Amino acid sequence: MTRFLSVITCNNALNMFVFIGGLILNDIVDMSHSQYQRGVKMIKNALFFLLLGVGVFFSSISQADPWKEMPSEQLEKTLSDKFHGGEYSSKGADSCLACHKKSDAVMALFDGVHGDMNNPQSPMAGLQCEACHGPMGKHNRGGKEPMISFGADSSLDAASQNSVCLGCHQSTELMSWHGSAHNLDEVACASCHKVHAAKDPAFDKLAINASCTACHTKEGADLHKRSSHPFKWDQMTCIDCHNPHGAPGEAALKQFSVNDTCFECHSEKRGPFLWEHAPVTENCANCHNPHGGVNESLTKARVPQLCQQCHADDGHGSRVDAGQSAFNAGKSCLNCHSQVHGSNHPAGKMLAR
Amino acid sequence: MRFPLNLITLALAGASGTLLAADFSVGAANTAKVPVDGYQCKSCISSDGLRGNVGVSLGVNDLDDIHAGNALGTDRDGVIGGINADVQGQGNNGYRLKAEAHRLGMANGSGSLGLGKDGRYHLNLDYRAITTYDQGDVQTALWHNDGTLVPSAEPRFLDLNLERHKASLGFELKDALFDTYVKYSREQKTGHQSASLMSPRPVNFALPVDASTDGLKAGVALKGEQWLLDVGYQGSLYRNDIQSLDLLTPQLYGVYSAAPDNEAHRLSLAGQLREDSTVMTGRVAAGRMLQDDALVPMFGNPLQNWDGQVDTLDANLAIHSTLGSRLRLGAKVDYSDRDNQSSVWDFNQGLSGLSFDALSGGFEQNLPLDIERTGVKLDASYRLGSGYRLDGGYERKDTSRSYGEREDTHDDRAWLGVKLAPLSSLSARLELGVGSRGGSDYEANGLTSSEDNTLLRKYHLADRERQDAKLALNWTATDWLSVDVNGYFARDDYDETQIGLNLSRDSGVDVNLNLHPTDSLTAYLFAGQQWIRTDMTAGRNGAVAWQADIADDFINLGGGASFSGLLDGRLTLGADYLFANSRSDGYRSLELPQPDGDYYSYQHSAGIYADYALSAQMALKLAYRYERYYDTDDARVSINGVPGLITLGESDHNYNAHQIMLTFSYLLN
């Protein structure tokens, strides 16, 4: 009935498409009015059944948990009561697979680490399916009693979902999870990780950047600017620098600071240099945007403007030349001050040697 | 009007119920009634053996600019090839193997091999090649020969690219009580990069790169039920095989100093304590950076080697707690100290021709920079109801530095966010922030800034008022269609700056559509635009001489689809397209009013592919990629195009590149 009503409400839009289609036909073919009317009716009937078919088809592919519409609070209370009640199944995984064995998505568990019964730390070596999905209770009586479920379709809040994962996964890499931006933003582990799979996409180097930029769209766009690190070709990944589970330093960087992060690959800029350039020593991000920029070398402005934003004073830094000159052509300021990241030359105070 | 009502209603309705973060961890489970003896898994599948695929790619590149090699994996014009693999193996006794390769053998490729026993030990070998292609056939008037730059009557043609090969070997040993890990890595960098020197006029030249970095990370983590302690070491050694350069004619020694060999070491201690709903984490690390490379011997240099040494101390302490069912609180303090212990000497600068102080006779002391930072962060999050959340925070950073124009600065920021989900299919998050930077008096005539105009404020030290906002909307229109819209805005007003960076505004919007109408069809579309506006001024004789308005724009569009439902599911067809346009326009007024020269780039990247399953074990993929790239920069001029300057030539990119690749895969399932 709902499907039928939804198709009926589409009728106005349908009429509009038919009208436009009819006008086009009328322009293309010099037909009589009765021919035109018959053509319109034919198109209308064809589109009606097409839309009906599409609607039925899309509705049929939608599968959700029976408890998907249950309010989150009620769901959590039900699950919590079940969890503490501890009514586990009589036969473990076999009780679950009696119904779920036909699901490829469920059976894919056995392709991965979590389905390995030889691993004493695997859930399958313990409470099996119920280690993560909670005690079966009366779920096997028609499948309507809720179980702990994960991912985008789960109505259970992220923190409760994550408590299952964090029950086993405690390590140095996860130490800062509780203070991480992802935790505060209620991101579920299952938003990135997949347990029922041979390979967790979060560990697929070719899928990591797409996974991160699906939410971090601004940074995702930055990667396609005139200059950027080679993320867009997956030669580098976001997790080369960031720990998505949080880190004590800023921006969830794996290293202690922005500069330490840059030095991981740009160790030639670490120094210490005899002559230091103070803003460089303080923070590489004073001049560079590591995700990309519309300027060369990921700088926040093109040279000489970038330099002039600090050095546009009474010296030659305030020059502005008409046309191309040794001041603004080639490498501009870096024609002479080529060692802006620091110089180790005895006469390198001006970062020119 | 509906939102406030909903918020209040939900807040009241939820006040008496449990709401947040039930603990479903296996450790909290009530297992008293688990019928252990009855647990079995006759229906479970053993996945012992190898799964995944191995394959080989063979194709053809058609390109005439090495820059295309960034996108196509190699700058080779003609036949190319690489090895691909994605293999997982599992033994019946818990042993596991993982092998991956992506375009292995090409200039941009990677591979890894992992072996281990679940939960016990793991050995990992990684290799990654990254080649960054900058410009091909640049004209260098100076070429490198065994530490000497030799002028050439006719410029030599070289490619500017940087080849990185990094290999690492790691081993982990685990137990219920501890994890230990050790990882050694070595990266070799070779190629040429753009550089410049004065002899006495500026000459741009291609500087050879030949350097390596060795890294070592090791540590042990001890674990308890509610605590964790990690002791670690991290070290890095950089070695540069290109020493300081001499110039043959005119004969100048040590005209260009190379990046010095250096090393860094750090010991860290990190820990975590968990107690009910409170988690406390802390970390303290002591580090040292060293450099004692040989200095260029010259008049006025009192040293053969300078003993550069910087000691660092970093510490963080964070506590996060969930109070009741709705309120989450967090607090964090940070401390960082960079103590530059390097020795201080007088060095003659007069010979550089850039700095001569009659008072000092051209001698200047190096200035070891010390930086000390402290920071505090507070945040709170209150859950109003399912899908409704209010959060906010405050953070402050204090920085003290030596020899700077401003000894102390402090940055404050407060933010407030709200998350709303008025419908199960619609959610929105709005975050607003305000920030301010202040500090001690700005000393425009300090030790390092004798030339500074008193009106000048360097932007990383200047007073600044900041406002920022972010809005994110997610609409799941149907099970198969979702729309994400993200908008952002930030405004930095350097209100005390008369000369320097005055104002910058950054705003943009991104729209993403994801479609998954059937199991066999997925598609996506995205569009985004960003606008960055910058106002700056320069001064002379105590007054503003000119001002510049800089407009940076970026447009990003694209889409793609994949359909796997053809020929009984044996054939998958797909296509992807991306357009990106970066542009920076500057205009200066007051003095010589004029726009800056052209500075923009655009690219079209398109690809189509067909993936056909020949049999249950074999698959064939045919892919075509097209790259159209153009960039221009007014600063790029011909090698002698500007009097008094020798450049690397006018080398804008403007190319079409094509790649056809056939990949044969053998499936191990």
From TrEMBL, chain B:
Protein origin, superkingdom: Bacteria
Signal sequence, start to end: 1-21
Keyword Transmembrane on entry: no
Keyword Signal on entry: yes
Swiss-Prot/TrEMBL keywords: Cell outer membrane, Membrane, Signal
Chief site of localization: membrane
Compartments, record wording: Cell outer membrane
Alphabetical list of InterPro entries matching this protein: Beta-barrel_TonB_sf, Decahaem-assoc_OM_MtrB/PioB
UniProt cross-references to Pfam families, sorted A to Z: MtrB_PioB
NCBIfam families referenced in this protein's UniProt entry, alphabetically: OMP_MtrB_PioB
Name of the featured protein: MtrB/PioB family decaheme-associated outer membrane protein
Annotated organism of origin: Shewanella jiangmenensis
Lineage, highest ranks first: Bacteria, Pseudomonadati, Pseudomonadota, Gammaproteobacteria, Alteromonadales
